[in-house]
């Protein structure tokens, strides 16, 4: 079983354009910051959420890098 957010599976991230991926990355980094802050102050309920958000961030970075190298293609704009 994969650890991470159910909304951020690789097949769904493939449908996002680069701008939306960067926005998702920013949102995940903000959540990670908040979770780390909660952990430091002893208010964090679920330590597993930290791991899930870190994996989501890594997954987004991987997709962006694969697109940069030409391994994975960005979705084409259909009009």
From TrEMBL:
Does the UniProt entry include the keyword Mitochondrion?
A: no
Against InterPro entries, the record matches this protein to:
Ribosomal_protein_uL29 (IPR050063), Ribosomal_uL29 (IPR001854), Ribosomal_uL29_CS (IPR018254), Ribosomal_uL29_sf (IPR036049)
Family per record: Belongs to the universal ribosomal protein uL29 family.
Query: Which gene is the coding source of this polypeptide chain?
Result: rpmC
The major lineage groups are: Bacteria, Bacillati, Actinomycetota, Actinomycetes, Micrococcales
Q: Which UniProt keywords apply?
A: Ribonucleoprotein, Ribosomal protein
Under Pfam families, the record lists: Ribosomal_L29 (PF00831)
Q: What is this protein called?
A: Large ribosomal subunit protein uL29
Q: What would you give as a GO molecular function for this chain, any one?
A: structural constituent of ribosome
Q: Is Ribosomal protein given among the entry's keywords?
A: yes
A single Gene Ontology biological process assigned to it is:
translation
Gene Ontology CC: cytosolic large ribosomal subunit
């Amino acid at each position: 079983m994969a650890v991470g957010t159910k909304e951020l599976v690789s097949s769904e991230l493939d449908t996002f354009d680069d701008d939306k991926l960067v926005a998702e990355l920013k949102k995940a980094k903000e959540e990670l910051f908040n979770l780390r802050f909660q952990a430091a102050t002893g208010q964090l309920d679920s330590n597993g959420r930290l791991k899930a958000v870190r994996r989501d961030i890594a997954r987004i970075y991987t997709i962006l890098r694969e697109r940069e190298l030409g391994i994975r293609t960005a979705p084409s704009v259909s009009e």
